[in-house]
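[RESIDUES AND BACKBONE]
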Amino acid sequence: MNRAAEPEYAAFSRRLLPETAPLLGVRLPKLRAMAKRIAKENAEAFLNSASCDTFEEIMLQGMVIGAADLPLEDTLQRITDFLLKIDNWSVCDSFCCGLKIAEKEPDALWDFIVPLLSDERAYFVRFAVVMLLDFFIDEAHLDAVLSLLSGVHHPADCAVTAVAWAYSVCCARFPQQTIVYLADAPLCDAVFAKTVRKCCESRRVSAQDKSQLRQMLAARRSAL
């Protein structure tokens, strides 16, 4: 892995992730290619012996779990173990998007995710929220997702930001239903404000919907 490291990229990444494990500076596409090869060769042997000395080594483990063809129960146990190693948004979010088992076993993953939304550990919560926004914001799950997000109360910024991000994805895909829900959703002021900001930053939310959301935020603030 050291041969793929780029010191300048490591310095750039360190500014974005100042509190993570040491960074080598290996770009994500190279890590994904390594993960695919390892997953085909012997994923379990790698995962049983992998170290956590650097950001890239931790990231690679998550990618291998996502790419490996393991039985469902083994995968869920690997996910549970890996969640304890996550301490930054980059590893969390990359891990989530690579878990293709969510497409193969959506019901099992849904049942696994939902209890984590009320976990005391911030990155367990962020993992669950990002999994929802990556795999479950569709017509069949929309009402449940909107309701579940309003029940997330972890104060950590990584969790609050994930909830706002998830609402912005809901708004992009299902604007009418989401805006109607947000009008009366039991959200604290901080979450509501960040949700509006995330929606307004999204290129997939229309100008008209952004204007309506800003008006809702202004009305909420004037009522304080």
Observations:
- The chain has 13 helices and no strands.
- The mean pLDDT is 94.
